Amino acid sequence: MITSVTVKAYASPSCVLLTFDWKSGPEHEDFLGFAIQRDPGYGRDRKPQFLFNKLDFVPLAEDARPKGSDEAPIQKFNWWDGGINTSDQGRTFEYTVIPVLGTGPGDLQLRHDAAGKKSVTVPKPLEGQIATYFNRAVVSAQSFAKQKDKSLEKQMDWLANGLQNAVPQILSDSDAFECAIYHLSDDRWIIPAFETFKGRGSIIYFDKADDTKSRAAAHRIAEERPNISIHKRDAITKLMHDKFIISYRKKHEHAVLMGSTNFTPEAQTVQANLLHIIHSRELAALYAERANLLAKNLGKKDMDPPDWTDVTDVDGTEMRVFFLPEPGEGRKFLDTVTEAVRKAKSSVLFCMYTASDKDLMEAIFAKGDSPKHLIYGLLNSIDDPDKPTKKGEKRKLPEIASTIFHRSQKNPDTLPYAAFGVNAPRGFLPELKTIDTSPFDASAAKGTAKRAKKKSGGPPPIHVHHKFIVIDGDTDTPTIYTGSPNFSKSSENSNDENVLEIKGNTHLAQAYVAELMRLYNHYRARAIWNKTHEKKAKPGSVADPLVLKRTRDEWVKEAYESGTKASLARERGL
After folding, report:
1. What whole-number distance in Å separates Cα of residue 565 and Cα of residue 559?
2. Are 574 and 19 in contact (CB under 8 A)?
3. Would you list the domain boundaries of the chain?
4. Do the domains spanning 6-124+546-572 and 126-303 agree at the CATH topology level?
């Protein structure tokens, strides 16, 4: 008896991730994938429409256009609808996932009798008491390549994806505010929002040694708005790495903006980032207390040792907040996260700028090696421990770096960002690595502080700036760690940081899963391509095009082999 496709969905305000399974697949040697129909579709007439696939059964021509998945089946067990616009937030779409049988073009049979359906309501940024903003941030995406001839402003708007509205939004809803920010330089959205704010405000900014990126903007705002005071923060071992705003209404703390995003043009556009606005008086009061300490410019020795503090006024959510640094070698924050990872029942997803804590990463990889767990991880870069510096010296890397590097070479579950570059497969547009946002960077303007020169052999450009871990995000009991710290010793013991532990909020966890998998799948394809093709082809080469497979076992065999990670992911819907 033929079974129906089962469909699971993870939705964020800007992305719908669909995962699906067809248990009857092994019974059909001519199973070629899935056709996915969305109702309403993308056109103005809102008629049902099939999601598109860039790949085809034949090599793509230079001017090839994506085909509907009824003609070019999806040969995966997950796919995301990238055609979600801000106008779609709050709307409900019905997705129909249909198995496709056949041998190739001209011989495709859509098995409607085995189709699975799923209705998905795209969440609005504010759901309950928590507003969520993720940017697109993938400059190397084919969809962004189509933006390359548009104005810089339109390119930035596309990449920011609504994230640019978060700071102006919380300020417009406030009578007064307090802000602590590591880098403040965005002269398109954020500085103007501060300069037009009419109430009382306070900005604590980091300014130490040659890191003066926030100085020009802070002083400019203070001159423009005498009602806004500024406070330099430098009495910290390394960085004041916070990024938060406390909103006041009628003299009472009302809400908090927090997350991974610095207040710079690149952080909102080309770097993968997020922000939350959380409407909680308890949380806002805790952040206000922290802001008061930072404004006094106290050193670590003059601040009480931190601890987790419960927040009880966010409905349907268990929440705690932790403010770093910890004294000495204390690691209560990292130990909490590590222990939570060890207790994971199903999955661990992480997205970080860097990963350097040995205990935490070993706990994550132990879950990755478990036959009952899935992990997916994306880092900004992964260093080769055996590659010498430009001076021929041994590289200074944390102990865990070697494990991360070798795992990333063997396992597709832990990846750095990468780009196709000049050797994109035939039919794919040449891809960009970044755009120049400096015209909107106040720290780069004449007569203000100059940017620090990049040291030779320094870190690569930042594309992945997130700092989050989602545990069991595919279950009804998820745990999220999100905030400003990089899950490192410096974040733990040397930096001003803030982080939330969020439990039980399945809708929020699903948004994190959708956004992580969007990025992960994008970079996974590029990383795999680079390993097998980048060094073989010459720039501009048209060798080795990507094409759809014409038999079931060419694309799906491992996913139906018991005990494989591909099989576990198919069954779990992740």
Report:
1. 8
2. yes
3. 6-124+546-572, 126-303, 323-428+460-504
4. no
Fold of 6-124+546-572: Immunoglobulin-like (2.60.40)
Task: List, in sequence order, every beta strand (DSSP E) within 338-419.
Answer: 347-352, 374-379, 414-416
Q: Which residues contact 145 (CB under 8 A, 6 or more apart)?
A: 429, 430, 431, 432
Cα 99 from Cα 24, distance rounded (Å): 10
Q: How far is CA 507 from the centre of its chain?
A: 16
Note if the bond before 325 is cis, omega within 30 degrees.
yes
How high is the pLDDT of residue 61?
A: 80
Q: How many Å is the Cα radius of gyration of the chain?
A: 24
Retrieve residue 395's tokens: 């590289």
Q: What is the pLDDT of residue 456?
A: 38
CATH number 3.30.870.10 is the correct assignment for the domain at 323-428+460-504: yes
Is 456 in a helix, a strand, or coil? coil
In the 8-state DSSP scheme, what is residue 442?
G
Q: What was the pLDDT predicted at 65?
A: 85
pLDDT of residue 457: 42
SS3 at position 421: helix
Exposed / middle / buried, residue 410 (Cβ in 10 Å: 0-12, 13-18, 19+): exposed
User: Residue type at 313?
Assistant: D
Which pLDDT score, from 0 to 100, does residue 82 have? 84
SS3 content of the chain, % helix, strand, coil (to 5): 30, 25, 45
Asked whether the beta carbons of 207 and 232 are under 8 A apart, the reply is yes
How deeply is 226 buried, as exposed, middle or buried, from its count of CB atoms within 10 A (0-12, 13-18, 19+)?
exposed
Structural contact between residues 196 and 309, judged by C-beta atoms closer than 8 angstroms: no
Question: pLDDT per residue over 319-356, tens digit each?
Answer: 999 999 999 999 999 999 999 999 999 999 999 999 99
Q: What pLDDT score was predicted for residue 518?
A: 93
Per-residue pLDDT tens for 542-555?
456 788 999 999 99
User: What's the token pair of residue 12?
Assistant: 């964020």
Alpha helices in 346-437 (DSSP H): 358-369, 401-410
Residue type, position 26, single letter: P
CA–CA gap between residue 298 and residue 49 (Å, rounded): 59
Closest CA to 436 of 204, 246, 270, 217: 270
Separation of alpha carbons 291 and 229, rounded Å: 13
Contacts of 54 (CB under 8 A, 6+ apart): 60, 66, 142, 427, 428
Strands 176-181 and 200-206: parallel
Superfamily of domain 126-303: Endonuclease Chain A (3.30.870.10)
Which residue stretches of the chain have pLDDT < 50?
447-458, 537, 539-542
Distance CA 73, CA 48 (A): 17
